[in-house]
Amino acid sequence: DNAPLSSLGILFNTGAGQHILKNPLVVNSIIDKAALRRTDVILEVGPGTGNLTVKMLEKVKKVIACEIDPRLVGELQKRVQGTCLANKLEIKVGDILKTDLPFFDACVANLPYQISSPFVFKLLLHRPFFRCAILMFQREFALRLVAKPGSKLYCRLSINTQLLARVDHLMKVGKNNFRPPPKVESSVVRIEPKNPPPPINFQEWDGLVRIAFVRKNKTLSAAFK
């Protein structure tokens, strides 16, 4: 599956969070959990060399793959060139945080971990609504997303995400499922936006939560004075 890469001598930029998911069992598991439909348009962020992309193309109407690294885009294009999958793949080259998101039914992403938080909120505030997102995160970030009130990990991220969406931890993914292996363990999370959303101004709400969590050990009354 990954043979062509080593022979091409592509060196991964781990500083940009490039860790390619190589284990086909994990790839298949993510695809199962995404419950893809034949009519779906999928937004994939960080397709890398396309291990997940190619499998999804076989099952859906279209995959819009967003990739920041032109070398990997070349790999992905080569991989589908001349096959019946080529016309189902649209590639956008660039930074997903600076890109207007297209219309999509579901999102699948193996993100650079440093953009996890801004990307989650970009997704949750995106309209029209999408059905679900299956996202790979650093384990600790994933646990904060699903943390319950009273837990040590419960934070602004937990409150805001759970206000706007239903969040489930689906599975743990060990470092050795990636090439090169990242320094941290990973987890896959499913996010389903609440539709209709809660009837509040999110920016104002977030301002309130930010104050509440600014100093963990202060009482709320002290923070709001």
Automatic annotation (TrEMBL):
Please provide, in alphabetical order, the Gene Ontology terms of the cellular component aspect for this entry: nucleolus
Cross-referenced InterPro entries: KsgA/Erm, rRNA_Ade_Mease_Trfase_CS, rRNA_Ade_methylase_Trfase_N, rRNA_adenine_dimethylase, SAM-dependent_MTases_sf
UniProt EC number: 2.1.1.-
Question: In its keyword annotation, does this UniProt entry include Phosphoprotein?
Answer: no
Root EC class = transferase
SUPFAM superfamilies linked: S-adenosyl-L-methionine-dependent methyltransferases (SSF53335)
Q: Which SMART domains match?
A: rADc
Which stretches are transmembrane? none
| Stored PROSITE patterns | RRNA_A_DIMETH, SAM_RNA_A_N6_MT
Every copy of the Ribosomal RNA adenine methylase transferase N-terminal domain together lies at 26-195
Q: Which UniProt keywords apply?
A: Methyltransferase, RNA-binding, rRNA processing, S-adenosyl-L-methionine, Transferase
Q: Which CDD domains match?
A: AdoMet_MTases
* Protein residues bound to S-adenosyl-L-methionine: H19, L21, G46, E67, D95, N110
One of the entry's Gene Ontology molecular-function terms is: RNA binding
The superkingdom of the source organism is: Eukaryota
Q: Which NCBIfam families match?
A: ksgA (TIGR00755)
Could you describe the subunit structure of this protein? Answer: Part of the small subunit (SSU) processome, composed of more than 70 proteins and the RNA chaperone small nucleolar RNA (snoRNA) U3.
- Role description: Specifically dimethylates two adjacent adenosines in the loop of a conserved hairpin near the 3'-end of 18S rRNA in the 40S particle. Involved in the pre-rRNA processing steps leading to small-subunit rRNA production independently of its RNA-modifying catalytic activity. Part of the small subunit (SSU) processome, first precursor of the small eukaryotic ribosomal subunit.
By sequence similarity, the record places it as follows: Belongs to the class I-like SAM-binding methyltransferase superfamily. rRNA adenine N(6)-methyltransferase family.
Name this polypeptide is given: rRNA adenine N(6)-methyltransferase
Recorded source organism is Ploceus nigricollis
Lineage of the source organism?
Answer: Eukaryota, Metazoa, Chordata, Craniata, Vertebrata
